[in-house]
Design the sequence.
């Protein structure tokens, strides 16, 4: 397996535009996590899914953020409209349905909103 | 949510052992202790995990206190490639295995 794949690796957009980040988890994994990393706030858990169903979205900062997982092999994180304070590195991770198993992270998407 | 506390940074000499501490005094009985590290410009990567007993793998060892309120990640011989941010996290069984990261410890390794 190629691991967790995120696209794009870098995104630069103007304030007010819609941004869509994509993630392909490892095949067979039950859980998918979206994180945001900034210097000020570190790694924040935004939302996670179990078997394509959102379980906890309490970390989603506001209504401008939305995430979907239409099937087991694809998830999106959308920001509409984007703002400069959304600039961060966004990571996707996946894991099996066990507390003792590891989460595998993608390389991240560096988002810059100007 | 159970939280972890780690020193902001630590420094080590190359080829020497490193002991990275973590406090998790509010840990619950079913919470697993995981350690991850993040190299520059990369996503976090798994290092080791444990529940109650000490654990060893090819990367590191994990020593867990008897009361489980603290743990220590041990790198037996630090190399320059081990310079990274190390995160101690609790894999929380809330019916969803929520995985929350703290601030981590930035490890500096001197040649």
Sequence:
């Amino acid at each position: 397996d190629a691991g967790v794949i995120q696209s794009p690796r870098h995104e630069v957009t103007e304030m007010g535009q819609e941004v869509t980040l994509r993630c392909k988890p490892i095949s067979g994994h039950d859980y998918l996590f979206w994180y945001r990393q900034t210097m000020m706030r570190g790694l924040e858990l935004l939302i996670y899914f179990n078997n394509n169903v959102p379980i906890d979205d309490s970390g989603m900062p506001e209504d401008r953020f939305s995430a979907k997982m239409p099937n087991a092999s694809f998830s999106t994180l959308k920001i509409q409209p984007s703002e400069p304070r959304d600039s961060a590195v966004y990571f996707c991770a996946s894991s099996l349905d066990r507390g003792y198993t590891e989460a595998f992270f993608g390389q991240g998407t560096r988002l810059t909103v100007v | 949510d159970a939280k972890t506390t780690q020193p902001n940074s630590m420094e080590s000499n190359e080829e020497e052992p490193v002991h990275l501490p973590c406090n998790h005094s509010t840990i619950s009985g079913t919470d697993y202790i995981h350690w991850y590290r993040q190299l520059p410009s990369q996503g976090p990567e798994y290092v080791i995990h444990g529940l109650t007993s000490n654990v060893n793998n090819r990367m590191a060892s994990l020593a867990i206190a008897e009361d489980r309120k603290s743990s220590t990640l041990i790198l037996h011989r630090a190399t320059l490639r081990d310079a990274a941010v190390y995160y101690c996290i609790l894999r929380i069984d809330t019916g969803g295995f929520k995985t929350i990261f703290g601030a981590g410890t930035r490890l500096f390794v001197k040649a």
